[in-house]
Input
Amino acid sequence: MAPVSTDGEQSNGHGASAVAVAPLEPGISAEQQAKALGIPSPPQFTDKYEERKYLKGRLALAFRIFGKYGFDEGVAGHITLRDPVDPTTFWVNPFGVSFSLIKASDLIQVNHDGKVIDGGPVRILNTAAYMIHSNIHAARPDVNCAAHSHSLYGRSFCTLGRELDIITQDSCAFYQDHVLYESFNGIVLADEEGKEIAKTLGDKKAALLQNHGILTVAGTIEAAIFWFVSLEKCCHTQLLADAAAGGRGEKPKPINADDAAYTYKTVGTPIGGYFSAKPLFDLMHVETKGDYLN
Output
């Protein structure tokens, strides 16, 4: 995909030019801004099988991104994709296969009963992945992708039993759009806890699972992955800021509610998450030379 031009005037794809809109132009919705700036939207498909093939490639690429960022911890961690052909099922990584080696052909398809019905040569399902993700997909028809792993700063911050403070522009993406799941009962092997996680998540994009790690969801793979990467960095920033301020007997300066809400409308939208992931996916495609598509 060619990069979007940053010139003042940009094509709207129909031969006419559209005037660029400032990121925080009052009265302009995120969707209108994206269209005016020529920001690409997720591709549309008339053939659901072609859509499945494309999305499985994007999911495999998402795992390569997780591997690059060191979000793996042994066999823990999972990203799921709602199947466009049969939306009652989802695709997930096979248990025990390295994120950095996953290809589209390795992914496994799981039905609502937790049975592997299609996929690659390793058809072992992570029970925790099924318990958490199946309940989220069932409770949230708008969620096509959910991501969870035991990333270093996310799990460190999750030991504190608190939500993020909104102290940076990036954290504004999670302003009133993340929750704390306060229970920890060990590895999620029971359906009831999966239901509780989904219930606590509600209509938000992210959850901090106490003593466990972070989880993000979105309507696109790209947005779910960007929210995860960004939330991990926000947790890291919060830990650094708290430590630095605490050493001086101070606290980090929060962004006021009005400014946080205003900034959220630009950095926290679904199209914002989708487009922000583009550099990650483009770079990983080049670095893997497309190997993940096999």
User: Anything to note?
Assistant: Confidence is low (pLDDT under 50) at residues 1-24.
